[in-house]
Structures are given as C-alpha cells and as structure tokens.
Amino acid sequence: MVVNWNDLHKFNHDNEWALGSDIVVCCINYTKENHHFIDKCAFDQMKDGAWFVNTSRGECVGSHALIDALESGKLRGAAVDVIENEQDVIEENILVKYADNHDNLIITPHIAGCTVDSQRKAMVWAIKKLREIAGV
Questions:
Q1: Of the candidates 43, 88, 101, 125, which lies 20 to 30 Å from 68 by C-alpha distance?
Q2: Which residue is catalytic, options 13, 35, 76, 110?
C-alpha cells in the first residue's frame, strides 16, 4: 500500500495530491479559508473508484460535490462522521437523504471519544483533579 499525504499549508488543487490514492482521508480543522476544501475539483483529481473519508468538519467538504462524485461512480464510496449543517434538522440534510437511499455512503455519529473506556478515564481524571483541588 502506498500512503500519500499533503500538508494543508502547502496544498493547492493543482498539485495532483490525490492522484492514485485508493483512500483519501480529510482530517483538517475548519476555517473560513478551507470552507468546501474538498470540492468538485478535488474529487475530480481522485482516482476513479477511490474511497473518501471525512473526520474533520462537515463544512470542509462540499455536500453536493460529494454526492455528485458518488452518483457518477468517481468515488466507490464514502464514510463521514460529520456532515455540513449538522445543527439543522437531520432529515432535511442532503447527505442524510442520499445515505437513506444508497449504500455507498455511511454516516456515523461524531462521537469517537464516547467509548466506555474514554468515559471511565475522563471520570478518573476528573476525580483526581477534584481531590487535588480539595487537598484530599
């Protein structure tokens, strides 16, 4: 397997950054400058039949461009745990509507840190800090 990566600060859509990648993962922070960072141009550069994963913020990916790439077969599939406009009524979100009727888009809740183990560790840490503050 070949792993390609790109530094967000050196990125531009002209450098064929995703060419040849079987899986493209977007994990960047959201700013106004990277709104729809992954857009039609980015999807067009991806290898035909590639998989796309977004674990950053929903607004980093153009929802319409993602759906177009999935419908056209440019992408074989996608998995996201964030969607654009998450605060809106979920049933009205275009990605949710698409996922309800197609099997090439998986949407999971953005709760990776909510495992039993992570919650236990957080509770132990909080109790430790409270004891330190209380001098116990």
A1: 88
A2: 110
DSSP bridge partners of 52: 24, 78
54 closest CA partner among 72, 87, 30: 30
110 assigned to active site: yes
Burial class of residue 30, CB neighbours in 10 A (0-12, 13-18, 19+):
middle
List domains and CATH numbers for the chain. 8-134 (3.40.50.720)
For this structure, is 57 an active site residue?
yes
Predicted TM-score of the model (pTM): 0.76
Mean pLDDT of all residues belonging to the chain: 85
pLDDT of residue 74: 96
Q: How many CB atoms lie within 10 A of CB 121?
A: 11
Q: How far apart (Å, rounded) are the C-alpha atoms in residues 136 and 128?
A: 9
Task: Summarize pLDDT for 55-102 with one digit per residue, the tens.
Answer: 888 999 999 999 999 999 999 999 998 898 877 767 788 999 999 999
Among 71, 86, 102, 131, the one annotated catalytic: 86
